[in-house]
Design brief:
Strand order of the largest sheet: 1-2
Number of domains: 2
Number of helices: 10
Shape: extended
Bound molecules: protoporphyrin IX containing FE
Number of strands: 2
Helix content: 55-70%
Structural class: mainly alpha
Strand content: under 5%
Largest sheet: 2 strands, antiparallel
Radius of gyration: 31 Å
Order of helices and strands: HHHHEHHHHHEH
């Protein structure tokens, strides 16, 4: 037995893959696809432990604000404080108390009380549990919002990386400086069936496919504007490099609706 033994290593890898796949299937079957009322009840209890911790984190934020009003934690943002209180209340009631009593205990005990093997519609019961994390994600966004702030962004900082990607995938021969100064041209270049690409394809396919250069270098608009001494180049740089001010709000309309503000 040695690590240099090819077949030995192959066998170990095979065994590991088999084992991990069995484990995956086991976990899925036992915890995710389960329709067993006791398993679902325990799932509810574990889930409410986690959500309870998040609710406790929010309670800690509330206590921090009440102990030191206007402290740097909330920065005197009263709306944010109210958001946290709301999220705390909603999480504690609907993701801790209700799941423990109705999801956990009721699911565990009632089938025993009525002398049944499971609840009626066990699959519905399972779905009832698994939609809960979805609801939690929607709700938790209220309390765990990112701060809202003004931000300056440089237009070029997000437009050039995107253009670079386009370039690498579409231009094999021309790898110079490209400046897309009109939406029309951008569209033409993106559209594989546009006249621009048709002409290139004809030239490529008919004679110069095997060569790595294009002998007929036509003077086209992008060459003119990408020429650094040209007026259009300078103008485009000025336009592109204007810093724009935007208000970054991590609170979407949906989140506000969910929160009921
Ligand atoms: C029933 C489930 C709830 C549990 C288990 C719970 C738990 C807690 C805990 C542990 C604290 C920290 C107290 C402290 O450190 O002083 C707290 C604070 C607070 N919770 Fe809840 N909470 C629940 C429901 C609610 C609801 C429904 C609301 C109202 C929306 C609410 C509003 C508050 C407020 C305003 C505080 C700060 C009060 C203070 O600390 O003096 N809670 N909660």
């Amino acid at each position: 037995v040695s690590v240099n033994n090819y077949f030995y290593c192959l066998n170990r890898i095979k065994k590991f893959l088999t084992y991990s796949n069995d484990l995956r299937r086991h976990i899925l079957k036992k915890y995710v696809y389960t329709i067993n009322h006791k398993r679902i009840a325990i799932n509810y209890l574990y889930f409410s432990m986690i959500t309870g911790l998040s609710g406790a984190a929010l309670a800690t934020m509330i206590r921090l604000e009440l102990a030191h009003p206007g402290s740097p934690f909330f920065k005197g943002d009263s709306l944010r404080y109210l958001q946290v209180v709301t999220a705390h209340g909603l999480i504690m009631v609907f993701f801790v108390v209700v799941p423990i009593f109705f999801g956990g205990f009721a699911n565990f005990l009632i089938p025993y009380h009525v002398g049944s093997k499971d609840v009626a519609y066990p699959r519905l019961n399972s779905i009832g549990f698994w939609i809960q994390p979805c609801g939690y994600i929607l709700l938790a966004k209220i309390g765990f919002l990112r701060p809202q702030f003004w931000r300056y962004y440089d237009k070029t900082s997000f437009s050039y990386p995107l253009l670079d990607k386009l370039k690498s995938s579409q231009f094999d021969e021309y790898r110079g400086e490209y400046l897309f100064f009109l939406d029309f041209i951008k569209k033409e270049l993106n559209d594989q069936h546009s006249i621009f690409w048709k002409i290139r394809k004809v030239i490529e396919i008919s004679q110069y496919r095997s060569f790595s250069f294009i002998p007929l270098k036509l003077l086209i608009w992008k060459d003119i504007i990408s020429y650094p001494e040209s007026f259009w180049y300078a103008a485009d740089r000025v336009v592109q490099s204007r810093r724009k001010k935007v208000f970054v709000s991590k609170c979407s309309a949906r989140t506000l609706t969910t929160a009921g503000w």
